[in-house]
């Protein structure tokens, strides 16, 4: 008799696992339950869809439901909400939400192996007015659809009785907006770009004193300066108290001000979906996400968790961390698929690596940069920040790459880095060198001697990463 | 009494050593002899100077002789040709070539520590006619100056009685030229770009069957295709027999053809300058360059060699290799300076990493790609080549990154890689990830799990480097 592998959740982790398991073991029966209609989509592309650089939501889908069913022979059941797991009986119960009665109903599906890949949901801050019209989050394809519709409607003048205005509008006085964005993380910044490009006057509210708080202060400052150059109004250290208005949102009320807006986007982070797991007796870890071992197996045998609902071990601290990002979901999902198909596969730790484009800048971060966090992990962190040319000084074009590098004083071990440059000048791809250093527990003295590629159109003889290592190495010596 | 550190050669390795030694130990007396007038210049920028993207040779100089003398307190003596080393007496003999009699003469300079940093010289192939007018090499600043003058003179019509024609000329029928380039390495390809951009009709002669032979075949093919797109005529597998002409060169004669040219650039590699070392009893290594230990010390105590005249240990093979490139010269020069100033410093191995821009493409290579070379080093090489999007498939712009990754079958160790993409799409900076993997003896299975940065404007969820690791890992499993 063939085994059945049941996957709950049809996005990155779930579909990677399903595809890999079926490819490695074609005899395996693979059933995927997905609550919505969309599967295997690139949620990271949603801001660019809202911006208008991507023309259709379908483009974000890497593999269609039909392809999964017909070409990959996966029993994919969209519109099926899994409401319970019975680990003793090894079954899941799914409710079909189809509008046609014949398809609706409850399914009880036995499993031999189960993967929870239910993802995360946008956090809505506990303030009044978040349920008003005109308040959006950006976590799902339908969120993206609604936002794009809002942008198209407003830009075409339906709400404001103004003629169609293109991206150039933000340089004119009669701009669209104003709109508010709450939160200065990836989503907040990418959406500031998306909305400003469509002519909206954007105010970004950030509770802390800087945007991109997971990056270095130097990166945050460079991005903040650039946002201001792009006419985004930054309200740093602003606690949002309430979203007011009659029906639609009309103002963002902070501790000391009231700013008129026509729309608000909440970009205040995500939290793992854990209800289903908790109900089934699956343990959560210290981060509040589902705990797993190195093979993504939970405390229940043959029950795995991967992607945005699960935590993973941090490369530098060795402790559980919750960093819900696309690559981890893909990698860990794929590892679970491979494990279930018979080849136990770990899928690796996470280094908290992330990249973001902010208008004409690009930034990346990896590892541990924050000194408090590093000390909590038993390190004595030392950081240096350097500015270096992105190309040889004499080579046309290019700009500055700012690198913050953090290492442990005693061992010299590289702990983390944050980089920022103009878009196209390589801050993000340069972070690849540091990720390797984190994974391999490289010291800053070893990193300094990395034989990195050099030619005048690409860097200075010492790449900015090496300059940072050299300077930090000097400090540590 | 203070020690004296004598440096022979005032370019990357020499001036890095001099500067670092003096900075770390200001009491040290530092004397540098440089045969020519230029010091500390970026020879890698010469093709861009000839192209016209860099306006003056001075721009290529990172620190001027005056700055070395006045600000860094280094006794820099340009126009001084060191003709002998006496290791028993610990002296060097230099001949000053100044035209004013008072400055000319012979100097005998004692040393406590000596660094040979005399660099490499362009190889002139042993064929007839290389001494004709119109035959150039590109190794030194004066070579660059002559070539730029040739380009300016020809473009302005002095030699051809044609009006000034800009880069667009190569799309017209009455193009400048034709010119020949012998050698399809970095210099050959960069100069093809430089000359074509100035309206010359370029034919590139390559003895082997592909350009950039140190790169993977896939990279070579991509670059060759692109050169042809840019109207460079490639003559692969063409053995050049002779350069003929009355006074100036008029034709390149190959084994089966005779191609009319008005100018020839020889880009047939470089060889280490070793005469001075050999005369002094300094041993050469198996590569024919000066042999050193990990601290760049030669067989003579307190006599070091670094930069393009010396060999170094290869990261992957553990054997001596000769890869004369700028970063190594800087890094090893600096390490010698630090060692001489009292802190013994190794400066690290070399991975044979190199980058090149070829018109609108960029390419990088690192480690061991060639299977014969890998087998000679005791590995059983397996390679895979993949094409991947440089940005998310749905994100505007971008192109293809082609990655060739080589690993050892038994251990899975990553041995080398070759990458190519459009310029600006990150083949070169992505190679940084592989360099780390080589230095740390990472397996392809570990590389596959590197938590590299991802966002749609920068890569697919699995960066092309990870895709290559995944595919190669699949082959090895």
From TrEMBL, chains A, B:
It comes from the Archaea. Coiled coil: none annotated. The keyword ATP-binding does not apply. Pfam families: Pyr_redox_2, Pyr_redox_dim. Residues 354-459 form the Pyridine nucleotide-disulphide oxidoreductase dimerisation domain. GO terms for molecular function: oxidoreductase activity. Its cofactor is FAD. Keywords: FAD, Flavoprotein, Oxidoreductase, Redox-active center. Residues 5-317 form the FAD/NAD(P)-binding domain. PANTHER family: NAD(P)H SULFUR OXIDOREDUCTASE (COA-DEPENDENT), PYRIDINE NUCLEOTIDE-DISULFIDE OXIDOREDUCTASE DOMAIN-CONTAINING. Belongs to the class-III pyridine nucleotide-disulfide oxidoreductase family. This is FAD-dependent oxidoreductase. It comes from Natronorubrum halalkaliphilum. The lineage of its organism: Archaea, Methanobacteriati, Methanobacteriota, Stenosarchaea group, Halobacteria.
């Amino acid at each position: 008799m063939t085994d059945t592998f049941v996957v709950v959740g049809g996005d990155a982790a779930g579909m990677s696992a399903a595809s890999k398991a079926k490819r490695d073991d074609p005899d395996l029966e693979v059933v995927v339950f997905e609550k919505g209609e969309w599967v295997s989509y690139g949620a990271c592309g949603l801001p660019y869809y809202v911006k208008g650089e991507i023309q259709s939501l379908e483009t974000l889908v890497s593999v269609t439901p039909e392809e999964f069913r017909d070409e990959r022979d996966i029993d994919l059941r969209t519109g099926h909400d899994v409401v319970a797991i019975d680990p003793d009986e090894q079954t899941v119960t799914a409710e079909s939400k189809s509008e046609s009665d014949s398809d609706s109903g409850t399914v009880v599906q036995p499993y031999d192996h189960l993967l929870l890949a239910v993802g995360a949901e946008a956090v809505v801050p506990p303030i009044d007015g978040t349920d008003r019209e005109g308040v959006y989050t950006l976590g799902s394809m339908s969120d993206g659809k609604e936002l794009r519709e809002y942008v198209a409607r407003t830009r075409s003048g339906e709400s404001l009785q103004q003629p169609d205005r293109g991206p150039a509008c933000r340089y004119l006085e009669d701009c669209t907006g104003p709109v508010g964005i709450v939160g200065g993380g990836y989503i907040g910044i990418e959406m500031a770009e998306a909305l400003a490009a469509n002519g909206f006057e954007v105010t970004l509210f950030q509770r802390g004193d800087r945007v991109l708080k997971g990056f270095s202060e130097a990166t945050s400052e460079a991005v903040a300066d650039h946002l201001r150059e792009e006419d985004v109004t930054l309200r740093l250290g602003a606690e949002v108290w309430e979203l007011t208005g009659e029906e639609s949102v009309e103002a963002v009320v902070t501790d000391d001000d009231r700013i008129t807006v026509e729309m608000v986007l909440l970009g205040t982070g995500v939290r793992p979906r854990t209800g289903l797991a908790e109900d089934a007796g699956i343990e959560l870890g210290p981060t509040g996400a589902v705990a797993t071992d190195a093979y993504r197996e939970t405390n229940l045998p043959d029950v795995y968790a991967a992607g945005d609902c699960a935590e993973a071990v941090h490369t530098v601290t060795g402790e559980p961390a919750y960093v819900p990002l696309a690559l981890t979901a893909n990698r860990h999902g794929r590892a679970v698929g491979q494990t279930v198909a018979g080849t136990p596969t770990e899928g690796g730790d996470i280094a908290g690596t992330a990249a973001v484009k902010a208008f004409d800048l690009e930034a990346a971060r990896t590892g541990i940069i924050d000194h408090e966090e590093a000390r909590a992990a038993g390190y004595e962190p030392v950081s240096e920040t350097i500015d270096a040319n992105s190309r040889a000084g004499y080579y046309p074009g290019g700009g500055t790459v700012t690198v913050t590098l953090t290492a442990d004083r005693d061992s010299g071990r590289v702990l983390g880095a944050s980089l920022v440059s103009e878009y196209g000048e390589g801050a993000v791809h340069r972070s690849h060198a540091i990720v390797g250093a984190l994974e391999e527990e490289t010291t800053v003295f070893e990193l300094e001697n990395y034989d990195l590629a050099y030619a005048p159109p690409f860097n200075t003889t010492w790449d900015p990463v090496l300059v940072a290592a050299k300077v930090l190495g000097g400090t540590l010596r």
